[in-house]
Amino acid sequence: VQLVESGGGLVQPGGSLRLSCSASGASLRIYVMNWYRQTPGKQREFVAQITSGGSTNYADSVRGRFTISRDNARNTVYLQMNSLKPEDTAVYYCYGPDNSWGQGTQVTVSS
């Protein structure tokens, strides 16, 4: 399975971004999919999860601001990030089937 993230970039505090995780080699519809993030010198941390049935779970630090969703027809998982804060700055990774990770996409929140 290959996962490819996109959609990162530089945004001002309070702004929004939508990250995408596209897959090849497997149909994501039957899998639990996750977003993680990592900053230099820190361990990768859980951000959000969506099950095959559409149930979601979030880290306390992003609950109410981030939304994970999936489009099975496009074989893609999304992370809508609103009300971004400087502490959301990190490389964001998609994690899915067979312990597969994407290459990550950088999100920088700064004025």
Structure write-up:
The protein is mainly β and about 110 residues long. The chain has no helices and eleven strands. The strands form two sheets. Strands 2, 4, 5, 6, 9, 10 and 11 form a seven-stranded mixed sheet that branches. It has a four-stranded antiparallel sheet with strand order 1-3-8-7, with no helix packed on it. Strand 7 (about 65-70) and strand 8 (about 75-80) form a beta hairpin. It is globular. The termini are far apart. The mean pLDDT is about 95.
Short summary:
This protein is mainly beta and 111 residues long. The protein has strands spanning 2-6, 9-11, 17-24, 33-38, 45-50, 56-58, 66-71, 76-81, 90-96, 100-101, 105-109.
Characteristics of this structure?
single chain; 111 residues; mainly beta; seven-stranded mixed sheet; 51% strand; globular
Helix content: under 10%
| Number of helical regions | 0
Q: What is the succession of H and E elements?
A: EEEEEEEEEEE
Based on Cα principal axes, name the global outline.
globular
List the uncertain runs: none
* Number of beta-strand segments: 11
What's the rounded overall pLDDT mean? 96
How far is the first residue's CA from the last residue's CA? 37 Å
* Major sheet summary line: 7 strands, mixed
Q: Which structural class fits the helix and strand makeup?
A: mainly beta
| β-strand amount | over 45%
Rg from alpha-carbon coordinates: 13 Å
